[in-house]
Write a structure and sequence with these properties.
With 211 residues, the chain is α+β, with helices and mostly antiparallel strands. It has one domain: Glucose Permease (Domain IIA) (Distorted Sandwich), CATH 2.70.70.10. The chain is 13% helix and 26% strand. The chain is built from four helices and twelve strands. The chain has an eight-stranded mixed β-sheet, covered by helices on one side. The N and C termini lie close together (6 Å).
Length: 211
């Protein structure tokens, strides 16, 4: 059995699809280049619901950060996970059982901040949780078992999560490629084929599984 990520099921009355793509004409540099404006935009869009979306979404917002530039003079701007936007401190539950693979703080503007990665042996896949609270990492141990439905972490503050409005970055990864406590959450268009395969749609994690 799979457990939901949040305390409330993600249904029509509790969630809203959020479009942060390059084709969204409501977004511009004046909004996504300013935390207060971007946070106000997100808050207005989601209201009291959880905003979600972003898998393989082309986002211009990453071009505001130098760490997303590549050696080929383009940007990593294709989002590889699903984001869930809601309040600081919101608890996140482990969807299925696994073990703690790695965890670490990934600081810097636009980065994950505190990050937790689980390995799920039965599915032979990893799940990554980015932008969580640093306090959640304090007592973790690599290899420790995690049960489905166990409180795994909480959403972190902007001051520790890379400067983003509060949200969870949830991503599936087939092959960690040697990364420890981190893995790219955004890729460039030229690398999309590889990453789309290595990081399958997170909705597949929940599809056809009882909640």
């Amino acid at each position: 059995m799979i457990h939901r990520l949040f305390s409330e099921p993600l249904r029509a009355n509790t969630q809203v699809a959020l479009d942060l793509s390059a084709t969204n004409e409501e977004l511009n540099a004046a909004i996504y280049g300013n935390y207060e404006a971007f946070n106000a935009y997100i808050t207005k869009k989601i209201g009291h619901k959880i905003g979600f979306g972003g898998y393989l979404e082309h986002r211009v917002i990453y071009e505001s950060y130098e760490n997303f530039a590549t050696e080929s003079a383009d940007f990593r701007n294709i989002h590889l996970g699903i984001d869930f936007w809601t309040k600081v401190g919101t608890p996140v539950y482990a969807p299925i059982e696994g073990v703690i693979h790695r965890f670490q703080d990934n600081p810097g503007p636009g980065n994950y901040g505190p990050t937790l990665i689980l390995y799920h042996p039965e599915e032979n896949i990893y799940s990554l949780y980015g932008h969580v609270s640093g306090e959640d990492l304090a007592h973790l141990e690599v290899g420790a078992p995690i049960s489905a439905g166990q409180v795994l972490c909480h959403l972190g503050k902007p001051t520790e999560n890379g400067g983003w409005p509060p949200h969870l970055h949830f991503q599936l990864i087939r092959d960690m490629q040697g990364f420890q406590g981190d893995y790219p959450g955004v890729c460039s268009q030229r690398d999309l084929d590889f990453y789309a395969h290595n990081c399958p749609d997170p909705q597949s994690f929940f599809k056809n599984r009882p909640a």
